[in-house]
Amino acid sequence: MSELDLGLKVASRRLLWRMGYTTRLDVQLRSVGAAERPTAGAAGAAGRSRRSSVPEAFTDLDVLGITVTGGFRLQSAIVDCKTTVKGSTSRMFWVRGVADFFAADAAYMVREKDLSNAARQLTSRLGIAALTSAEVTRLEELHPSHLALDAEPLAWLFQRDKAATVLGTFNGLDKRLKPLLEYREFTYWLAEEHRNPMQLVDELTAVARYLDPRNPHHLALVLDCAWLYLLTLSHAVESLRAAHVADPDRGLQEYLFGGPAGLSEKQGLSRLLEGIKQSGALPDGVHVDLLPSYFPRLRELAIRILTRADSVLPALRLLEFATSVTALGQRIEKPEDMGGLYDDVAAKRAADVVGFLVGTAGLDNGFRARARSLLLGEPMT
C-alpha cells in the first residue's frame, strides 16, 4: 500500500462519512484453508489428511462503508483506490465483480488524477462511480455534515499518518491472539452472516485470558470486535423485522441456525444428545442444549437494538471512532469533545455491546469500565 493510496483511502472514507456511512479500511477477503488430499505413503499414517493448506487471498476492499436506510435495511459501499490511471478501464470490470461478490449496493473507483474516457463511459452500464481525487473533494462539498470532520479529534479518522498507525495497531501482538485477529480480519467477512453472533463470542472466549484492559492495543481490539458484533446483530435485527418482529425469541433462534429448517435440525440433534446424556453415556457437565447459555442476554441485546434502530448507525460510528482514538493512545475527556458525534442513546448502545462481550466471553471487567469511560464519560473506578 503506497502513501498516495492511503491518502485516497482516507479521503474516500471522509466522503462516505459525509454520505452517512460508518467505514472500515483494508477489508481482506481470502479463502478458507482446505485440508490437503490424503497421500498414501507420506510421513505419518497413510491415508490421513495432512495439515491444511495456506489460505489464498481473493482480494481486498480498500474502503468499506456501511449504512442503515429507512426500514432498517443495511446497505454497503466499496471504494477501490489507486494512484495510477493505467488499466482504469479494465479495473472497472474488476470493481463490478468485487461489488457483486460482496453484494455491495454501491461501488466507487477513485484515482489520483485522470481517468480514461472509456472508464467514464462504463459508469452507467456497470453501476460504478468513477472519480478523481478532485472530484471526491467536489462531492464532499455536496454532502454537508453537522459533524466537525475537519477538526481534531474526529479528523484523526481522515488523516493519513493516523490511519497508518491505526492499521498497524494489531501487528506484533501476542501470537496467542492470532486466531481472534485472523477471524476479525478474514473469516468474519466471508462466513455466513448468521454464524457470526456465536462465532465471534467463541473466538473472544478462547483468548480472553491473554487480553489486558490496561494495554491500549488490547482495548482497541475489543472495541473493534464490538463494532463487528453490532454490525452482526444489525443483520440479525434486519431479519427479525422481516419475519418475526412480534416474536423476536423465535426469530433470533431461527436466524442463529440459518432459518426454520436449520433450527428444526438442531432441535432434533439436541433432543438426541439429551437422551444420550440421560442414559449416562455423556457426563452431566456436557452442554447439550440447543442454545448457548448466554442466549437470554443476546436476545435482550437484540431487542434493545430492534426497539431503537435509529441508534445503530451512530453507535457504529462511535465504536469506529473510539477504536481509532484508543489505538492512537489518545483519550477523549468528555463527550462534547467528539466533534458532534456523541449521542446519548447510541453511546449507551455501544457500551451495551461491549458489556455483553465482556460478560459473555469472560473478559476482564476493566474492558467494560474503560469502554464506558470512553463512550459515556463515566469516571474510572
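the 2nd protein, sequnce then structure:
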Amino acid sequence: MMNLPYPRCRLIETDSIDELHGVIMSLVPDLQSKYGVLCFLYSVLINYGLESLRHGMADDADTLIDPVHGHASQCLINLLISGQATPYLFDGERNVSGITLTGILKQPRTGFLTLFEALHYCESGWYLKNPSYPIWILGSETHFTVLASPDPFLVCEETDIKSKGATLHQAEIEFTKLCTDQDTKAGFIRDSQLEELLKRLHISFTTVSLGNLKKSLDPENLGVILESTFLQHFFPQEMAKRLTTVRQFHVIHYNGLEKSNSDGRVRYQTGEAHILDPTEDLIALEEIERSPIQRCLQTKWPTIRLRWDDGRTPSLN
C-alpha cells in the first residue's frame, strides 16, 4: 500500500480509460478547489512512479518546487509536458565524459521556451521548440506563462521513423549521436559511420550503392561526411521548406498572476506576430523591442516582431 502525503488523500485505481474519465469528471469540483492543482500533481507523480522520478532527477538534493519562487522545477515541467522526468532540454541522449544524459525523447504536444536561453544559460532542443500543437510554456527567472496560437501551420507532427520513413529532424538527431564531439556538434561523421547512420534511419542500401554514396557525399575523399551534405542529399524538399516560414500569425498569452495583469484582472492578451526575412531584419527602421517575452520568443523565431492589441507588452513574471 502506497503512503500518501496526507491522511485525507485517497488513491483511486481504475481499470480502463473510460472508467478513469468518469472518475476525473466526478472529481472536477475537487480539482477546481483550492488544493486541486496539488491533487493533480500527486496523481501525476504516483502514476509516473516515485522511484522513476528520483532516477530522472539530476541530484538527490533537487526539489520539484522552487523553494524561493514556488514554481515547478525543470524536471517537473518536462514530466508534465513530455511524460519524461528529466532536467535537460536537449533532444534524445547525450554522452558527456562517459555519462549518458537523457533529454526529451519525443515530440511533446506542448512546447517550452525559456528566457534563460536568451541569456545563454541553456538551449531548448527541437522537440521543445516544435511541439505537435502551437502551445508553448514560457519560462522566466521567477514564473511560467503560456503562449498559444490558432495557426496550425506553425507546427507539424513528427512521423514514426519506422512506419513512414525518417524525417529531417530525426536524421539530425542520429547524425549528432554519431558525431565525435556531441557537445560542440562537430557537423561531420567519419565515412565509416555512414552505414550505421543509414541503418538507424531505415534507409536501404547495398554494398555497391553504399560505395557510390560515399563518393557522392565525400567527392574529395577526405574520409568525412558533412551533415549539411548528407541532409541535402536525402531531404532536399524538407531543407528547402526551412527557407520558408509562416510570416504572420495570431498569438495569445496568458499569465495567471493577478499582479502581472493590468488592473489586477487575469485575462488573455492577444496580438499579432510578424516574422521578418533576415535581410528585412537588418534594415528594419523601427526600434526592436527588448522585453523579456520578445527575447524569449526570439529563441525560436530570431526575427519575430510583436504587436499587442491593447498596446501593452505582457509580463513573463
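The chain has a mean pLDDT of 86. The chain has 15 helices and ten strands.
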